[in-house]
Amino acid sequence: MEQKILFFDIDGTLITDDGKRTFPESAKKAIRMARACGHLTFVNTGRVFVNVDDFIRDAGFDGYVCGCGTYILADGKELLHHKLTNKRCVEIAEKARICGIQGIYEHTEKICYDSHVDTAEARELIEYFRRNYRNIVDDIYSPEFIFDKFTAWYDEEQSRLSEFMNYVSDFNCIMREGSFIEVVPKGFSKATGIQFILDYYGIPLENAYVFGDSNNDLEMLQYVPNSIAMGVCTPEVKAVASYQTSCVNEDGIYRALLHFGVIE
Prior knowledge:
- The protein is an alpha/beta fold.
- The chain is 31% helix and 24% strand.
- It has helices at residues 25-36, 54-57, 86-99, 120-131, 161-167, 190-201, 218-223, 235-240, 252-259; strands spanning 5-8, 40-44, 63-66, 71-74, 77-81, 101-107, 110-113, 136-137, 149-154, 171-175, 180-185, 208-212, 226-229, 243-244.
- Helix 1 (25-36) runs parallel beside helix 9 (252-259).
- The longest helix has 14 residues, at 86-99.
- The N and C termini lie close together (12 Å).
Protein backbone atom coordinates (compact mmCIF):
# COMPACT_ATOMS: atom_id res chain seq x y z
CA MET A 1 0.00 0.00 0.00
CA GLU A 2 1.24 3.49 -0.83
CA GLN A 3 2.12 5.62 2.15
CA LYS A 4 -0.76 7.82 3.29
CA ILE A 5 -0.64 10.90 5.51
CA LEU A 6 -3.43 11.81 7.89
CA PHE A 7 -4.16 15.26 9.35
CA PHE A 8 -6.44 15.66 12.37
CA ASP A 9 -8.01 18.73 13.90
CA ILE A 10 -8.20 18.47 17.71
CA ASP A 11 -11.36 19.94 19.23
CA GLY A 12 -14.46 18.11 18.07
CA THR A 13 -12.33 15.80 15.93
CA LEU A 14 -9.72 13.96 18.01
CA ILE A 15 -11.34 14.89 21.32
CA THR A 16 -14.90 15.66 22.32
CA ASP A 17 -15.99 19.28 22.24
CA ASP A 18 -18.27 18.99 25.27
CA GLY A 19 -15.94 20.41 27.91
CA LYS A 20 -14.76 16.95 28.97
CA ARG A 21 -12.06 16.82 26.25
CA THR A 22 -12.28 13.04 25.98
CA PHE A 23 -9.86 11.33 23.58
CA PRO A 24 -11.66 8.04 22.81
CA GLU A 25 -9.70 4.81 22.77
CA SER A 26 -11.07 4.01 19.31
CA ALA A 27 -9.37 7.13 17.90
CA LYS A 28 -6.07 6.26 19.58
CA LYS A 29 -6.33 2.71 18.27
CA ALA A 30 -6.96 3.93 14.72
CA ILE A 31 -3.89 6.19 14.87
CA ARG A 32 -1.72 3.34 16.17
CA MET A 33 -2.98 1.01 13.43
CA ALA A 34 -2.34 3.60 10.71
CA ARG A 35 1.22 4.16 11.89
CA ALA A 36 1.80 0.40 12.14
CA CYS A 37 0.88 0.22 8.44
CA GLY A 38 3.59 2.77 7.66
CA HIS A 39 1.33 5.80 7.30
CA LEU A 40 2.10 9.22 8.82
CA THR A 41 -0.21 10.94 11.30
CA PHE A 42 -0.23 14.67 12.03
CA VAL A 43 -2.18 16.98 14.27
CA ASN A 44 -3.36 20.00 12.26
CA THR A 45 -4.85 22.51 14.66
CA GLY A 46 -5.60 26.12 15.32
CA ARG A 47 -4.06 25.60 18.75
CA VAL A 48 -0.48 26.71 19.23
CA PHE A 49 1.95 23.96 20.20
CA VAL A 50 1.96 24.78 23.92
CA ASN A 51 -1.79 24.10 23.96
CA VAL A 52 -1.51 20.60 22.52
CA ASP A 53 -2.00 18.71 25.76
CA ASP A 54 0.26 15.85 26.79
CA PHE A 55 -2.60 13.35 26.62
CA ILE A 56 -2.92 14.21 22.92
CA ARG A 57 0.83 14.11 22.23
CA ASP A 58 1.02 10.73 23.97
CA ALA A 59 -0.95 9.17 21.10
CA GLY A 60 2.32 9.21 19.15
CA PHE A 61 1.88 11.53 16.20
CA ASP A 62 4.63 11.98 13.62
CA GLY A 63 4.32 15.74 13.78
CA TYR A 64 2.24 18.84 14.31
CA VAL A 65 0.90 21.70 12.23
CA CYS A 66 -0.09 24.30 14.81
CA GLY A 67 -1.47 27.81 14.94
CA CYS A 68 -3.24 27.39 11.59
CA GLY A 69 0.00 26.66 9.75
CA THR A 70 2.23 29.20 11.53
CA TYR A 71 4.27 26.51 13.32
CA ILE A 72 5.31 23.09 11.98
CA LEU A 73 7.12 20.31 13.81
CA ALA A 74 8.08 17.00 12.17
CA ASP A 75 10.69 14.33 12.81
CA GLY A 76 11.26 16.01 16.18
CA LYS A 77 12.43 19.22 14.46
CA GLU A 78 10.96 22.68 14.15
CA LEU A 79 10.58 23.17 10.41
CA LEU A 80 8.69 26.45 10.36
CA HIS A 81 7.78 29.21 12.81
CA HIS A 82 6.30 32.43 11.48
CA LYS A 83 7.12 35.16 14.00
CA LEU A 84 5.61 38.59 14.57
CA THR A 85 7.49 41.48 16.15
CA ASN A 86 6.73 42.67 19.66
CA LYS A 87 5.92 46.10 18.20
CA ARG A 88 3.25 44.75 15.85
CA CYS A 89 1.78 42.56 18.59
CA VAL A 90 1.43 45.53 20.96
CA GLU A 91 -0.16 47.65 18.22
CA ILE A 92 -2.78 44.96 17.58
CA ALA A 93 -3.57 44.55 21.28
CA GLU A 94 -3.91 48.32 21.70
CA LYS A 95 -6.36 48.51 18.78
CA ALA A 96 -8.31 45.55 20.14
CA ARG A 97 -8.65 47.37 23.48
CA ILE A 98 -9.97 50.49 21.74
CA CYS A 99 -12.45 48.48 19.68
CA GLY A 100 -13.76 46.37 22.56
CA ILE A 101 -12.26 43.12 21.31
CA GLN A 102 -11.14 40.53 23.90
CA GLY A 103 -8.17 38.68 22.45
CA ILE A 104 -6.34 35.55 23.52
CA TYR A 105 -2.94 36.00 21.87
CA GLU A 106 -1.28 32.66 21.19
CA HIS A 107 2.44 31.95 20.85
CA THR A 108 3.93 28.51 20.44
CA GLU A 109 5.46 28.76 23.93
CA LYS A 110 3.00 30.99 25.82
CA ILE A 111 -0.44 32.53 26.07
CA CYS A 112 -0.87 36.31 26.21
CA TYR A 113 -3.90 38.43 26.96
CA ASP A 114 -4.85 41.96 27.92
CA SER A 115 -5.92 42.06 31.56
CA HIS A 116 -7.54 45.47 30.92
CA VAL A 117 -10.19 43.86 28.71
CA ASP A 118 -12.30 41.39 30.64
CA THR A 119 -14.94 38.90 29.46
CA ALA A 120 -16.34 35.77 31.06
CA GLU A 121 -15.18 33.65 28.12
CA ALA A 122 -11.60 34.86 28.41
CA ARG A 123 -11.54 34.46 32.21
CA GLU A 124 -12.66 30.84 31.91
CA LEU A 125 -10.04 30.03 29.29
CA ILE A 126 -7.20 31.78 31.10
CA GLU A 127 -8.05 29.91 34.30
CA TYR A 128 -7.92 26.65 32.37
CA PHE A 129 -4.48 27.60 31.06
CA ARG A 130 -3.29 28.51 34.56
CA ARG A 131 -4.49 25.18 35.96
CA ASN A 132 -2.52 23.43 33.24
CA TYR A 133 0.68 25.39 33.96
CA ARG A 134 0.82 27.45 30.78
CA ASN A 135 3.23 30.37 30.63
CA ILE A 136 0.90 33.40 30.69
CA VAL A 137 1.70 37.04 29.91
CA ASP A 138 -1.04 39.52 30.90
CA ASP A 139 0.69 42.85 30.20
CA ILE A 140 0.54 43.95 26.57
CA TYR A 141 3.51 46.27 27.14
CA SER A 142 5.79 43.48 28.32
CA PRO A 143 8.72 42.65 26.00
CA GLU A 144 7.45 39.06 26.31
CA PHE A 145 4.15 40.00 24.66
CA ILE A 146 4.46 38.28 21.29
CA PHE A 147 2.11 35.93 19.49
CA ASP A 148 1.75 33.87 16.31
CA LYS A 149 -2.04 34.28 15.86
CA PHE A 150 -5.00 35.05 18.07
CA THR A 151 -8.61 34.32 18.84
CA ALA A 152 -11.07 36.88 20.11
CA TRP A 153 -14.58 37.52 21.34
CA TYR A 154 -16.59 40.57 20.37
CA ASP A 155 -19.88 42.11 21.42
CA GLU A 156 -22.09 42.26 18.33
CA GLU A 157 -23.76 45.46 19.54
CA GLN A 158 -20.91 47.32 21.21
CA SER A 159 -17.63 46.26 19.60
CA ARG A 160 -16.12 47.88 16.53
CA LEU A 161 -15.24 44.65 14.77
CA SER A 162 -15.13 46.04 11.22
CA GLU A 163 -12.81 48.84 12.27
CA PHE A 164 -10.54 46.36 14.02
CA MET A 165 -10.42 43.94 11.08
CA ASN A 166 -9.60 46.79 8.69
CA TYR A 167 -6.69 47.63 10.96
CA VAL A 168 -5.31 44.07 10.92
CA SER A 169 -5.45 43.84 7.13
CA ASP A 170 -2.27 41.72 7.21
CA PHE A 171 -4.34 38.93 8.80
CA ASN A 172 -7.21 36.73 7.70
CA CYS A 173 -10.27 36.49 9.93
CA ILE A 174 -12.11 33.18 10.35
CA MET A 175 -15.64 33.65 11.65
CA ARG A 176 -16.24 30.92 14.20
CA GLU A 177 -19.41 29.88 16.01
CA GLY A 178 -21.03 32.65 18.06
CA SER A 179 -19.30 36.01 18.54
CA PHE A 180 -15.89 34.41 18.17
CA ILE A 181 -13.16 34.91 15.58
CA GLU A 182 -9.80 33.34 14.81
CA VAL A 183 -7.23 35.67 13.27
CA VAL A 184 -4.21 34.32 11.38
CA PRO A 185 -1.41 36.05 9.44
CA LYS A 186 -2.12 36.12 5.72
CA GLY A 187 -0.39 33.36 3.79
CA PHE A 188 -0.88 30.79 6.55
CA SER A 189 -3.65 28.26 7.09
CA LYS A 190 -4.18 24.61 7.86
CA ALA A 191 -4.02 24.05 4.07
CA THR A 192 -0.62 25.74 3.65
CA GLY A 193 0.65 23.62 6.54
CA ILE A 194 -0.50 20.47 4.75
CA GLN A 195 1.25 21.43 1.51
CA PHE A 196 4.45 22.21 3.43
CA ILE A 197 4.41 18.71 4.95
CA LEU A 198 3.53 17.03 1.64
CA ASP A 199 6.50 18.78 0.01
CA TYR A 200 8.76 17.84 2.93
CA TYR A 201 7.96 14.11 2.62
CA GLY A 202 7.34 14.03 -1.13
CA ILE A 203 3.81 12.67 -0.72
CA PRO A 204 1.17 13.46 -3.38
CA LEU A 205 -1.98 15.33 -2.41
CA GLU A 206 -4.20 12.37 -3.30
CA ASN A 207 -2.53 10.35 -0.52
CA ALA A 208 -3.54 12.89 2.14
CA TYR A 209 -6.63 12.59 4.35
CA VAL A 210 -7.97 15.37 6.57
CA PHE A 211 -10.45 15.33 9.44
CA GLY A 212 -12.30 18.37 10.78
CA ASP A 213 -15.51 19.76 12.19
CA SER A 214 -15.43 23.57 12.40
CA ASN A 215 -14.96 26.58 10.16
CA ASN A 216 -11.23 26.90 10.74
CA ASP A 217 -10.99 23.50 9.02
CA LEU A 218 -12.67 24.71 5.82
CA GLU A 219 -9.50 25.57 3.91
CA MET A 220 -7.90 22.19 4.49
CA LEU A 221 -11.14 20.32 3.77
CA GLN A 222 -11.50 22.19 0.48
CA TYR A 223 -7.83 21.72 -0.39
CA VAL A 224 -7.57 17.96 0.14
CA PRO A 225 -9.80 15.65 -1.96
CA ASN A 226 -10.03 13.02 0.82
CA SER A 227 -11.78 15.28 3.31
CA ILE A 228 -13.71 13.88 6.25
CA ALA A 229 -16.27 15.79 8.30
CA MET A 230 -17.02 14.57 11.78
CA GLY A 231 -20.53 13.54 12.78
CA VAL A 232 -21.14 16.84 14.51
CA CYS A 233 -19.85 19.71 12.38
CA THR A 234 -20.85 23.09 11.05
CA PRO A 235 -23.09 23.23 7.96
CA GLU A 236 -20.20 24.80 6.03
CA VAL A 237 -17.92 21.87 6.86
CA LYS A 238 -20.55 19.32 5.88
CA ALA A 239 -21.05 21.09 2.55
CA VAL A 240 -17.39 20.90 1.48
CA ALA A 241 -16.27 17.52 2.87
CA SER A 242 -16.16 14.51 0.55
CA TYR A 243 -17.28 12.14 3.33
CA GLN A 244 -18.96 12.40 6.71
CA THR A 245 -18.19 9.96 9.48
CA SER A 246 -19.77 9.58 12.90
CA CYS A 247 -18.83 11.58 16.02
CA VAL A 248 -15.42 11.02 17.57
CA ASN A 249 -17.01 9.37 20.63
CA GLU A 250 -18.93 7.08 18.27
CA ASP A 251 -15.71 5.71 16.71
CA GLY A 252 -15.79 8.29 13.92
CA ILE A 253 -12.06 8.29 13.16
CA TYR A 254 -11.77 4.51 13.30
CA ARG A 255 -14.76 4.05 11.00
CA ALA A 256 -13.51 6.60 8.48
CA LEU A 257 -10.07 4.99 8.21
CA LEU A 258 -11.73 1.62 7.65
CA HIS A 259 -14.00 3.18 5.00
CA PHE A 260 -11.03 4.56 3.08
CA GLY A 261 -9.00 1.36 3.45
CA VAL A 262 -6.22 3.08 5.38
CA ILE A 263 -6.52 0.43 8.10
CA GLU A 264 -8.06 -3.04 8.04
